[in-house]
Design goal:
It comes from Paenibacillus mangrovi. The protein is built from five helices and nine strands. The protein is α+β, with helices and mostly antiparallel strands.
């Protein structure tokens, strides 16, 4: 039986990353994001079809997330070298081009397993998206089948709802009143 993650401390991680400029390697740990919101998302594989639409859409919205004191970190089970090659490949050649956040390598599959989204038979992660608050508590999780991309607008809406400090009704939008504060 799967263990719930929402409402608990997010599973810790440390992974190698490629920065969005496509030339610098680094490491990212959950503790690096203390004091900020983290939009932490998994995608199945580099050089595929749905994944670049999600990554480039999130990259184009990076300033909106930054304005909400949120960082973005993408992760797949590919190597940092595959990530680097994908970032350094132009979009018109099935690449990403430069992006506005790092991509992490979960080559050991440990983090995908810890977050409950690893597909053992395929060796890849499902499309899992997690919002982690500044104290490290996992506040939101959505997992899609790998055939279906996620929504930047919905991710922004949920982040703002979580930051609103109250109860948010169905279809709550920024500017709407909360049910209780």
């Amino acid at each position: 039986m799967a263990e719930r993650l929402v409402g608990k401390q997010a599973p810790d991680f440390t992974m190698e990353t490629v920065l969005g400029n496509g030339s610098d390697f680094s490491k990212a740990s959950l503790s690096d994001y203390r004091g900020k919101w983290l939009v932490f998302f998994f995608y199945p594989l580099d050089f595929t079809f749905v994944c670049p639409t999600e990554i480039t859409a999130l990259s184009e919205a990076a300033d909106q997330f930054k304005a909400l004191d949120a960082e973005i970190l993408g992760v797949s089970t590919d190597s940092i070298h595959s990530h680097k090659a994908w970032i350094n490949t132009p979009r018109d050649a099935n690449g990403l081009g430069q992006i506005n956040f790092p991509l992490a390598s979960d080559i050991t599959r440990t983090v995908a397993k810890d977050y409950g989204i690893y597909i053992e038979e395929e060796g890849v992660a499902l499309r899992g998206l997690f919002i982690i608050n500044p104290e490290g508590e996992l506040k939101y999780q959505v997992v899609n089948h790998n055939d279906i991309g996620r929504s930047v607008e919905e991710t922004l809406r949920v982040l703002q709802a979580l930051q609103s400090g109250g109860l948010c009704a169905m279809n709550w939008k920024p500017g709407d009143k909360n049910l209780l504060v």
